[in-house]
Design goal:
Order of helices and strands of chain B: HHHHHHHHHHHHHHHHEEHHHHHHHHHH
CATH class of the largest domain in chain B: Mainly Alpha
Helix content of chain B: 55-70%
Distance between the termini of chain A: 32 Å
Largest sheet of chain B: 2 strands, antiparallel
CATH topology of the largest domain in chain B: MetI-like fold
Radius of gyration of chain A: 24 Å
Radius of gyration of chain B: 36 Å
Number of strands of chain A: 19
CATH superfamily of the largest domain in chain A: P-loop containing nucleotide triphosphate hydrolases
Oligomer: heterodimer
Strand order of the largest sheet of chain B: 1-2
Strand content of chain B: under 5%
Number of domains of chain A: 2
CATH topology of the largest domain in chain A: Rossmann fold
Number of helices of chain B: 26
Chain lengths: ~375, ~525
């Protein structure tokens, strides 16, 4: 999955801050370097500052403090049209009074390119997104998916090295979104362009990106490749935000290098991996993925702690079973099991015992 | 043939559908019926009637019908002044018109075409009563019975009328006998009018009133043409005696009497004017509206000092276009700002834009008068700054400048509002997209934003242009003479000169010009490109 990158900082944010009203910082001390050719996603809930970062990079917003560098050059004082950054918007932003061909020709015209050259480039760009036959259409005559393909072609036609995408698939239905996710990723890697992609959809972020920056409260909470982000969240926000997650709260009782025991508020003792806890007595939220919970005691390490659980609800979801349990005082503990031929289907009311591998249970900040 | 689809109740599907739709249509029709009737009664019919006035000319043939018939054969080239027969017919018509008090109205109508006729009608209206007196005197000298009103009713009336009149409480409407019409056609014709006027206008009885002299003149003519005319109802020998005597009478000279009353009646031009405007419909109002005159010799350009309308139309158009242009230039940036402000501030600004609507139009226009006059605020300020010398104060009011300034101010909201509502729908991401694609601010605006705001400009321009082309109050107050519009002239003809035909023709031309421009706009820009919002 991970590609080998050169380490050069093609895009760099250095101690960037942004405030709109002089009172609240929307972006707090952002430091981020993006190597050339990387597909980086900014993921976060709305109001987390991710779009503001994108707009600062595009030049539509100015940083209140700090430096943004593009290929080593500070762009703080370069107007947007001179940055040479391609951009794709959520509402496509195709110019409604121009045909598809004219839309694509526009960035080439403002670059004073000759007619013949323009036509070749427009054709090539449209073919690239399989929209070669649509050059004479107007945006209003096309579906949302077609429009977004054209918008993508338009952002690429002048061969920018950096393309910014602001929730480009947000307005499309699920199936189309998945197709386009795949196409955009392929295209980006084929062309070797650097992409900064903003979304609030974690699946999109996980499937498309080389690295994901999770934003919250104006800060990057974690910057990591998708698998690491999912499996090794470094704080409880990331753990909550990415994927489904069970949270139990307690106090660290014993702590080792890669192992700790936590006494839950209910009094139960569990094993966990210390991530964000430093000393005995720290309050912690432990996080465990639903699919990592074991109901078969034989598959646990000897001596592992287990918890008593009562089955509250069993939901058949086709490929998986989703079972809600009452565990250590919470009714919202969920486990997911694969729909395999030998898998037991738990009936509500059953008392079971659950456990997990210590490395799957992460003791995070409280 | 395809099998017909059947509905559940056995009818064909089509007829059930039609039935269902018919009820819907009927309901829709009933809903709009009140408004439709209101518009029909208060808008379509009055306007239609007003427009009809621009070609209507029945007044001539209705007021002087005998003259119009008699004049039909007159040829000014052969005979510079019509013959006695025409004058006698005219005297009869005038007598009736004077009694009905409508002769001055005809005078005013013809005065539009030939100045001075109005006073001729007024003067001769006073004199026509006495014309032909010598004929009456000769008849009375012959037999005093001719002086008696009863003799005349006996001669002229249907016998039934005489019996009825004698018994009935209210006098029945006078009926001329067929015999009288046959034996003395001219006399019967004019006597019928005399009887009608006496009964209806003077509220008298023909049995007690001696006929007009012009009736005696008609009798004289009839008897001269047919000395043997007899009427069974006539007193014995009266008609025979008169028939034998008339050839010896001194012939009346009505023509001389008219010329004596006003020299104008002896002029060819007077009669040519009457002849030219005899038909019930005329194009003359329209011709006048474009500075042409319909003269007996054909259509001619009006005298140079009277050509005002073409110039006025052109001025109205040019000034309306100027006002429209000024509104675009001033309104576009305001609308832009409104559309790009946060909605709280935008609403506040919008209220400021609409603020002028809360004050009376008259007050605003008068305020401009205060501001723009030579001793006014703006001039004072310019003099104080030293931009303008005290003795060269600018004339900004009572001329075209004043009209343009005041009307631009008054019509500006009509440009800003449609512009704003269109600009509001243009997402800011278009401009961002254009800039990210490498366009400078200006290119992004001109190639991407402006084309999308054109529908707003179109809507605003049509509104402002059509409003200003028919504007009246402001040009009237601040326009002086060089800043007035065609509408001021129309108002003048409606309320002061009372030449409604000309006013209607000017109005019609204005309407047609507006429609033509609207059509041209549709052909060039496309009316579906006009958006008032959304």
């Amino acid at each position: 999955m991970k590609q080998v990158k050169n380490d050069e900082a093609f895009v760099a944010f250095e101690r960037v801050q942004k405030s709109y009203d002089g009172e609240v910082l929307v972006v707090k001390d952002l430091n981020l370097t993006i190597p050339k050719g990387e597909f980086l996603t900014l993921l976060g809930p709305s109001g987390s500052g991710k779009t503001t970062c994108l707009m600062m990079l595009a030049g539509f917003e100015t940083a209140t403090h700090g430096d943004i560098r593009l290929d080593g050059v500070s762009v703080n004082n370069i107007p947007p049209h001179k940055r040479g950054i391609g951009m794709v918007f959520q509402n496509y932003a195709l110019f409604p009074h121009m045909t598809v061909g004219e839309n694509l020709s526009f960035p080439l015209e403002v670059r004073k390119m000759g007619k013949a050259e323009r036509e070749t480039k427009v054709k090539r760009a449209l073919d690239m997104v399989q929209m070669g036959d649509f050059a004479a259409r107007r945006p209003a005559q096309m579906s949302g998916g077609q429009q977004q393909r054209v918008a993508l072609a338009r952002a690429l036609v002048f061969e920018p090295e950096l393309v910014l995408m602001d929730e480009p698939l947000g307005a499309l239905d699920k199936q189309l979104r998945e197709t386009l996710q795949f196409e955009i990723t392929n295209l980006a890697h084929e062309l070797g362009i650097t992409v900064v992609y903003v979304t609030h959809d974690q699946t999109e972020a996980l499937t498309m990106s080389d690295r994901v920056a999770v934003f919250d409260d104006g800060r990057i909470q974690q910057l990591a490749p998708p698998d690491e982000l999912y499996e090794k969240p470094i704080n409880s926000f990331v753990a909550q935000f990415i994927g489904e997650n069970n949270t139990l709260t307690g106090v660290v009782q014993e702590i080792g290098a890669d192992r700790c025991t936590v006494r839950l508020d209910s009094g139960d003792i569990i094993d966990a991996m210390p991530v964000n806890v430093n000393a005995v007595g720290d309050r912690t939220k432990v996080s465990i993925r639903p699919e990592r919970v074991e109901i078969d005691k034989t598959r646990l390490q000897p001596g592992a702690h287990t918890l008593k659980a009562e089955v509250l609800e069993f939901i058949y979801m086709g490929d998986i079973f989703r079972t809600r349990l009452r565990v250590a005082g919470t009714d919202e503990f969920v486990i997911k099991t694969r729909n395999a031929p030998d898998q037991v289907r738990l009936t509500p009311g059953t008392q079971i015992e659950i456990g997990w591998l210590a490395q799957d249970c992460r003791a995070l900040d409280a | 043939m395809a099998e017909q689809m059947m509905a559940a109740d056995g009818r064909t599907l089509k007829s059930s559908l039609n039935r269902a739709l018919r009820r819907q249509k009927l309901r829709a029709l009933l809903l709009i019926a009140p408004l439709f009737l209101f518009i029909l009664l208060t808008f379509v019919i009055p306007i239609g009637q007003m427009l009809f006035r621009s070609v209507e000319n029945q007044i001539v043939s209705e007021t002087i019908p005998r003259t119009v018939v008699a004049l039909a054969d007159w040829d000014a080239a052969v005979d510079p002044v019509p013959d006695e027969a025409v004058f006698r017919a005219f005297a009869a018509d005038m007598m009736v018109a004077v009694e009905e008090r409508i002769h001055t109205r005809l005078g005013s109508r013809l005065n539009y075409e030939a100045a001075g006729i109005s006073s001729q009608f007024r003067r001769s209206g006073r004199d026509v009563e006495d014309m032909g007196e010598e004929v009456t005197e000769q008849f009375v000298a012959l037999d005093p019975q001719w002086e008696e009103p009863a003799t005349w009713t006996l001669l002229m009336a249907e016998s039934d009328w005489i019996t009825e009149q004698a018994t009935a409480e209210d006098e029945p409407a006078f009926v001329v006998s067929d015999a009288a019409r046959e034996a003395l056609p001219r006399t019967a014709d004019i006597y019928a009018d005399f009887a009608r006027v006496t009964q209806n206008i003077n509220e008298d009885s023909p049995t007690e009133e001696q006929p007009w002299h012009i009736v005696y003149v008609a009798l004289y003519e009839d008897l001269l043409a047919n000395p043997a005319a007899q009427l069974a109802a006539a007193p014995a020998g009266l008609l025979a005696e008169a028939g034998a005597a008339v050839s010896a009478f001194t012939a009346p000279d009505i023509r001389a009497a008219f010329v004596d009353s006003d020299e104008g009646w002896g002029e060819t031009r007077t009669w040519q004017t009457i002849q030219t405007y005899s038909p019930p419909y005329t194009a003359s109002y329209f011709l006048n509206s474009v500075d042409l005159n319909q003269t007996p010799d054909g259509i001619e350009l009006a005298p140079e000092n009277q050509r005002i309308y073409v110039q006025l139309f052109i001025r109205t158009l040019v000034m309306s276009l100027t006002i429209m242009g000024a509104c675009i230039l001033l309104g576009y940036p305001v609308a832009w700002m409104l559309a790009n402000l946060p909605s709280r501030q935008a609403n506040l600004m919008l209220i400021l834009v609409l603020l002028p609507f809360w004050t009376s139009l008259l007050v605003r226009t008068s305020a401009w008068k205060v501001l723009l006059q030579q001793q006014g605020v703006i001039n004072d300020l310019l003099v104080w700054i030293g931009l303008v010398a005290d003795e060269n104060r600018l004339t900004m009011i009572n001329n075209a400048t004043g009209t343009i300034i005041a009307m631009t101010h008054i019509l500006l909201p009509f440009m800003i509002l449609p512009l704003y509502s269109v600009m509001k729908t243009i997402p800011p991401s278009y401009l961002r997209a254009a800039k990210s694609l490498g366009a400078t601010n200006w290119t992004a605006f001109w190639r991407v934003y402006f084309p999308q705001s054109v529908p707003g400009i179109g809507a605003g321009s049509i509104l402002v242009f059509i409003l200003s082309i028919g504007y009246y109050i402001t040009p009237e107050i601040v326009g002086g003479t060089s800043g007035i519009f065609i509408s001021n002239r129309i108002a003048y003809h409606i309320s002061s000169s009372l030449n409604w035909g000309l006013a209607a023709a000017l109005g019609t031309i204005l309407l047609v010009v507006v429609l033509a421009l609207y059509w041209a706009y549709d052909r060039i820009v496309g009316i579906d490109n006009v958006k008032l919002g959304g």
